[in-house]
Amino acid sequence: MRLAGRFLYREYGIVTMDWITDSIAIGNFLEARNHKLRVDAGIRSIICLDAVVRDPDERNLDVDDYEVIDLADGPRNDPRVFDQAVRLVGVFSEQSPKLLAHCRAARCRSVIVVAGYLMRERHWWCDKAIACVGGLRDIQLTSGIEALPRSGGQQR
Hints:
- By secondary structure, the chain is of the alpha/beta class.
- The chain is 38% helix and 13% strand.
- The protein has a single domain, classed as Protein tyrosine phosphatase superfamily (Protein-Tyrosine Phosphatase, Chain A), CATH 3.90.190.
- The radius of gyration is 14 Å and the shape is globular.
- The N terminus is likely disordered.
């Protein structure tokens, strides 16, 4: 029986992340900063999607790849920046698996970027990709951000 990461944290104080694919996990910024959790999970690459919560010790992280792409919750994002984040999910998850995509709470920005990757990689519609991620973790998309995968190259 698989217990959702949010349940484990709420009920037992256990910090965890949720695996969306075999090589892509979503977590919050506290999980991204947790060295033991990263090592135990085999994390080799990280994409931070909120520059405010970037790791203050990022130069000394024990990962192969680390990138900060600043997205906002809501409608104020440049579709080109979103597309860059989606492309990096693909690159990092292949060249340095296992990837942790994180933002502040891991319920919006990281969700929409990983959903965008699933749309591109698996040729899914936006609703299916978001439902896939939502079936594996607690999500809460802010109004306007759900339009990002439908903009630019993410038309499906």
